[in-house]
Amino acid sequence: MSRRTPQLPSWLPIDPYVLALIGTVVLAALLPASCTAADVAGGASTGAVAFLFFLYGARLSTAQALEGLRHWRLHLTVLACTFVAFPLLGLASGGLVPYVLTPPLQSGLLFLCLVPSTIQSSIAFTSIARGNVPAAICAGSFSSIAGIFLTPLLAAALLGNSGGGFSAGALLKIGVQLLLPFVAGQLLRRWVGGFLARHKKVLGYVDRGSILLVVYTAFSEGMVAGIWHQVTPVRLGALLAVEAVLLAVMLSVSWYGAKRLGFGREDRIAIQFAGSKKSLASGLPMASVLFGAQASLAVLPLMLFHQMQLMVCAVIAKRRARGPQEPAPDGAVVRETAVVG
Fold first, then answer.
1. What angle do CA 318, 136, 243 make, to 5 degrees?
2. 3-state SS class at 325
3. What is d(CA 141, CA 6) in angstroms, rounded to the nearest whole number?
4. Which listed site, 18, 60, 106, 301, has its alpha carbon 20 to 30 Å from 112?
5. How many CB atoms lie within 10 A of CB 199?
6. What's the number of CA atoms in the CB half-sphere (13 Å) around residue 113?
7. How far apart are CA 152 and CA 166, in angstroms?
8. Using one digit for the tens of pLDDT, what is the confidence trace for 161-203?
């Protein structure tokens, strides 16, 4: 019997969940929440963000993460790609203002560069390409944990007032909405982990529904504030071109940089897919907390980059699968994770 691996649609023309996100944006444009409805949507969005990070904490296996520490060089390489190389490129994009990007779009692009890596898609692509799947699981998990702490701090340091005004009060809000639910989920994992595992499919819909609510609230605020006149088709096309270059650079840096560091082919595959991606599931809730009313423009680059990375990496994964294989390390076991990436 042949071993089955996660399959992605051929050429991945568009992710169905991205279609749902686009539909949510259209709904917010046609029927934005305002007045009392905006207050209700804002309160529900705040609760949804806290619940999402509670689920992240409750699902993450601490034992699995600690087990992965033995491959620390690989994880440090992925973290360096995610929180060093990406932010440096994001800062360099400041030179494109105002000729290519508007200041709000460049702030959104820089925020994209500060978001942690994905988990689910990194695992799927690594598996299809016959890379080191356990390493991809741990690298994505470490990046997600680090992002809860590092993304807000890096945003406060690099975005400044463009992120809606970072202050001690804003960081406290981040701690209450993101860190406390995550820690609570970790502490309660012993009692709720089994329930979450049994209802993984249903809770997956809850995850995605919560993120759609966050997107609707953010884009409704943008419509009411009248900020969408800042995005013209020319600027949107320029943003797509800049993101294509960003993705190409990080795919090259993660692949050839890992080769220079002496990693084997399977490890390089895991590093490339975990080190070149950004998490939509983590980034959208964080943006709603960090940017407030400006969140709609801030998350636009992330939403576009998410779809682009899926399409490009689907092609790369299939090409890697046809390349020469190396013997799997002893004791390598493919595990599943329920954390949304």
1. 65
2. coil
3. 19
4. 60
5. 11
6. 28
7. 9
8. 555 545 556 566 667 777 788 788 888 888 888 888 787 777 7
Instruction: Compute the distance between CA of residue 159 and CA of residue 107 in angstroms, rounded to an integer.
Output: 7
Distance CA 322, CA 311 (A): 18
Quick one: tokens of 241?
């071109």
How far is the C-alpha of 91 from the C-alpha of 110, rounded, in Å?
Answer: 7
In this prediction, residue 23 carries a pLDDT of 84
Calculate the CA dihedral of residues 65, 71, 76, 77 and round it to 10 degrees. Answer: -130
Q: From the CB of residue 72, how many other CB atoms can be counted at a distance below 10 Å? A: 11
The ranges of the chain with pLDDT < 70 are 1-15, 17, 60-69, 160-174, 225-230, 292-294, 323-341
Which residue is associated with the tokens 């399977």?
266
Cα 119 to chain centroid, rounded = 8
Q: How many C-beta atoms lie closer than 10 Å to residue 311's C-beta?
A: 15
| Distance (Å, whole) CA 293 – CA 308 | 26
Exposure letters 266-282 (e unless 16+ CB within 10 A, then b): bbbbbbbbbbbbbbbbb
